[in-house]
Structure formats: structure tokens, C-alpha cells
Amino acid sequence: MMLMEKYKENLDALTDVSSELGEIFSTVPLYTIKDMAKWFNLVATFEPQFFAHMQLTPLVDCCVVLLQHPSLLQDVVTQAKVISILNGFIRTDQRSNRGKRSIDWG
Asked: What is the Cα 31 distance to its own chain's centre?
């Protein structure tokens, strides 16, 4: 997450994955990402208010970077789990705001 803060201002300009970024993401085992996705989806489904006061921007940024650069996350099942995290947050927002776009993930 600290690396995401380092690149936060340049995410749009980041066209090439630096070796540092690839090296850091490669240290995270796939099962960790899958388990994290299961947990976030479970909480988003049954206790959506849990996320009400959390700073979710670093997690969302991390998910987006992983999806933007398939070389970082080559397993399609894990890519689907990452997408399910983002979808869970959107569903939670839609339920709590009845479709109004008002969530502030940051």
C-alpha cells in the first residue's frame, strides 16, 4: 500500500510497469488476493456499513493497477476476484444510497 501512495499522483501517467512495482506485487501470493476478495465480498454483502468510515482509495487503486497491467496478475481467476472486490463496493454503495452516486472512497 505504501508503494501505491508513492505512485498515487502518477497513476494515469504510469504506462510501463516498473521493475520495482512488478517485484513488489510478485511477492503477494495469489491465495492472499483470493482470500482478501472473499472477505471483502462477504463484508460488503452482510455488513456494508463496515466500510462507511474506511479509507478505501489505496485498495481501489491497487485493484486498478493490477487490472491495468495483466503482467502483474496473470491468473484469470484471481483477476475475476479483484473485479469482484470493485463490484462489491459498487453494489454496497448502490444499496446504501439507492442508486445515487455519492460514495467517497477516499
From this structure: 15
Residue 57, all three cell numbers: 482509495
Which 3-state string (H, E, C) describes 51-83?
A: HCCCCCHHHHHHHHHHHHCCCCCCCHHHHHHHH
* DSSP single-letter state for residue 1: -
Residue among 67, 81, 71, 86 at smallest CA distance from 35: 81
CA pair distance 78, 105, nearest whole angstrom: 23
- The shares of helix, strand and coil residues in the chain, as percent rounded to the nearest 5, are 70, 0, 30
Task: Single out the residue of 97, 98, 60, 66 nearest to residue 79, CA to CA.
Answer: 66
- Residue 74 near residue 90 (C-beta atoms within 8 A): no
pLDDT in tens, 37-52: 899 888 888 888 888 7
Global pTM?
Answer: 0.65
